[in-house]
Amino acid sequence: MTGFALLLVSFAGPVLSADFHPGKTTLLINREYGATLLAGLREARSSIIVSCYLFKISKFPGNMPHRIADELIRARQRGVAVTVIFEQSRDESDFLNRENRASASLLTPSGIKVRFDSLRKTSHAKVVVIDDRLVFLGSHNLTHSALSRNNEISVRIDSPEMARQIKTYLGTL
After folding, report:
1. What SS3 class is residue 91?
2. Which residues are CB-neighbours of 166 under 8 A, at least 6 positions away?
3. 35 in a domain, yes or no?
4. What is the pLDDT of residue 31?
5. Mean pLDDT per segment of 10 residues, for the chain of length 173 residues?
6. Which letter does DSSP use for residue 38 in this model?
7. Which CATH number covers residue 132?
8. Is residue 22 part of a domain?
9. Distance from C-alpha of 114 to C-alpha of 52, rounded to nearest angstrom
10. Model pLDDT, residue 21
11. Contact of 121 with 97, CB cutoff 8 Å
């Protein structure tokens, strides 16, 4: 049986494409994501792009989604170009639409560019690109549950090439 397994492995193709350069990667488990993302947002100098399925900013200013929203607003006030891409569903009264529109209305007065994805396809991506270099990618929605209680896993990747590829993809949403 060992010989058969080795034979299979020898015919396996490369796991990563030739143009993939992962850069320095940090695993962010559960609550580690929020604090690490906040630090990245604070250090942003030129641009921040956020794509999220659900961004639920509650009325409690101390919770992590509210702190992230505040940090996005502060970044915009520093002159950083900030864009947030929200998911939207066809049902206008849907919980997702209600929460994402409420978050958008909190962010837009500060000059943050907000847009909603196409209704043709659900965008479940949860990604942040900072300064065309730093990428946060994974399972975390921007909700209190995801950032404080749920089992979630994401990565922080320091890679201009990965950031470029993700920005290109986000441009198609």
Report:
1. coil
2. 127, 129, 135, 137
3. yes
4. 94
5. 42 44 84 96 98 87 92 98 91 83 94 88 90 96 92 96 93 85
6. H
7. 3.30.870.10
8. no
9. 11
10. 59
11. no
pTM above 0.70, yes or no: yes
* All residues at 6 or more sequence positions from 5 whose CB lies less than 8 Å from its CB, including other chains: none
**Backbone phi and psi for residue 31, each to the nearest 5 degrees, phi listed first:** -70, -15
Position 150 scores a pLDDT of 94
The tally of CA atoms less than 13 A away on the side-chain side of residue 147 is: 23
Helix axes 95-107 and 64-77, enclosed angle (nearest 10): 40
Indicate the number of domains in the chain: 1
CA atoms of 103 and 107, how far apart (whole Å) = 6
Q: Are 108 and 76 in contact (CB under 8 A)?
A: no
C-alpha to C-alpha distance for 52 and 66, rounded to whole angstroms: 15
The residues with which 142 forms a beta bridge, in sequence order, are 55
Q: Flag whether 134 is in a domain.
A: yes
- Decide if 39 is inside a domain: yes
* β-strand partners of 29: 153
Q: Are strands 113-116 and 127-130 parallel, antiparallel or unpaired?
A: unpaired
Q: Where on the phi/psi map is residue 129: left (φ > 0), alpha (ψ -120 to 50), or beta?
A: beta
pLDDT tens digits along 126-167: 999 999 999 999 999 999 999 999 999 999 999 999 999 999
Q: Give the domain extent around 115.
A: 30-170
